[in-house]
Specification:
By secondary structure, the chain is of the alpha/beta class. It is built from 8 helices and 6 strands, in the order H-E-E-H-E-H-H-E-H-E-H-H-E-H. The relative contact order is 0.21.
């Protein structure tokens, strides 16, 4: 899907922008707050710092029952509440990955798009010189399984796509890590995840 269709018209807001559209292309990274998306955000920021390319972080959101459910019972107050929650999730992802903006990256843009994740990412990274970075869970069947965001992005993107696997942890630590916050991994933090 190219940049001028569907989701591009609905991709509303932009915040945290600190520069222009110059350069060979942008690094567009999908952010959801998962460990895989945080790994993708860090990989994209590392490449942006090394190449000088702009970094565009995209978080796609929809009303809980989708757009069709919202059209049956539209409520602007709830829609604004969901948008604020998505904005907080995007900001929290940057805080957890970097403690703010990524170091060494001059041009950072944070964008919310009201659409399905695969459609929002393909429409945003519609230029041929862009590079799309997405986080994936490590298993091959997740990449190519039915209906997955990664599969749809890989088959429809109009630019190169870099898939970044989620970090792997021993099975016994996964439960603790689900409850861990960024402070648990910082020097001087408690060092233990709340159980």
């Amino acid at each position: 899907m190219k940049g001028g269709s569907g989701a591009a018209g609905r991709s509303g807001e932009t915040a945290g922008r600190s520069g222009g559209e110059a350069g060979p292309g942008r690094l567009v990274v999908g952010v959801s707050g998962s460990l895989a998306s945080l790994a993708a955000l860090r990989a994209a920021a590392l490449e942006a710092a090394g190449t000088g390319r702009p970094l565009l972080a995209v978080l796609a959101w929809e009303p809980p029952r989708g757009e069709a459910g919202y059209m049956l019972r539209p409520d602007r107050i709830w829609a604004e509440n969901w948008r604020r929650e998505a904005r907080a999730r995007l900001d929290r992802a940057f805080d957890e990955a970097f403690g703010g903006n990524p170091p060494g990256v001059a041009d950072v843009e944070r964008r919310l798009v009201r659409d399905r994740p695969w459609r929002a990412l393909c429409a945003t990274a519609g230029r041929p010189h862009d590079r799309l970075v997405i986080g994936v869970r490590g298993a091959r069947w997740v990449l190519f399984g039915r209906g997955g965001t990664a599969r749809r992005v890989l088959t429809r993107a109009g630019c190169p796509v870099l898939t970044v696997p989620a970090p792997r942890f021993p099975v016994l630590l996964r439960t603790r890590l689900r409850h861990a916050r960024a402070v648990h991994f910082q020097p001087g933090g408690s060092g233990r995840a709340a159980v």
